[in-house]
Amino acid sequence: MNSPDLSNAGKIRSFSRRQGRITAGQQQALTDFWDKYGLEPGIECRFSEIFGREAPVIVEIGFGNGDSLADMAEANPDCDYIGIEVHRPGVGHLIMQLEARELSNVRIFCHDAVEILARSIPDQSLAGVHLFFPDPWPKKRHHKRRIVKPAFINLITTKLAQGGYFHCATDWENYAEHMLAVLSNAPDLDNAEAGGGFSERPSYRPLTKFENRGLRLGHGVWDLIFRKN
């Protein structure tokens, strides 16, 4: 496949730099335990050295407050996870969770996911990539800021090992349709859903509080899982 075009990787942001209020506990976790769980931009990840073992590695992009990532890591101790999130309060909250649960199979980047994927994650090294409920940028004039676009999917594909998967989910139907169109046109990915549409939520993806509330209100959620062929 063609190498991904990274010329605009840092020019169009798919997120806004709203840091929000960081609590004393989150800041303390960052201060006390960043060296234990944090990874610095610019490094080239050697997963066996980072985690001290050989295991499937899954990247989650934009993990929010990290509760779901901590749940997955706890439920799947045979996998290792790299979380990428730009908002420090969420990073601090996840570190608090990891320390409280004594989880050793998660490491964190607090940086732009596109740059981390391009510069720190080795090609053909990942068992999976998760992108759950990214900013939908619902206004039409902002659609160009959506992270799911052909260049991004090309980058993801170069990082997946053969048979590795990309799993995204959204509660915006218009964005779900956009994701399906982009992914269906990716030459090196196959839809895991035999009918070519959306997938049922797999058991490994926890329901978030936000998602549960939306489901009670009748809001839809759409999952897409594609595998590298």
TrEMBL record:
InterPro entries: SAM-dependent_MTases_sf (IPR029063), tRNA_(Gua-N-7)_MeTrfase_Trmb (IPR003358), tRNA_methyltr_TrmB_bact (IPR055361). Substrate binds at K139, D171, T208, K209, F210, E211. Pathway: tRNA modification; N(7)-methylguanine-tRNA biosynthesis. CDD domains: AdoMet_MTases. S-adenosyl-L-methionine binds at E60, E85, D112, D135. Catalyzes the formation of N(7)-methylguanine at position 46 (m7G46) in tRNA. This is tRNA (guanine-N(7)-)-methyltransferase. It comes from Methylotuvimicrobium alcaliphilum (strain DSM 19304 / NCIMB 14124 / VKM B-2133 / 20Z) (Methylomicrobium alcaliphilum). The lineage of its organism: Bacteria, Pseudomonadati, Pseudomonadota, Gammaproteobacteria, Methylococcales.
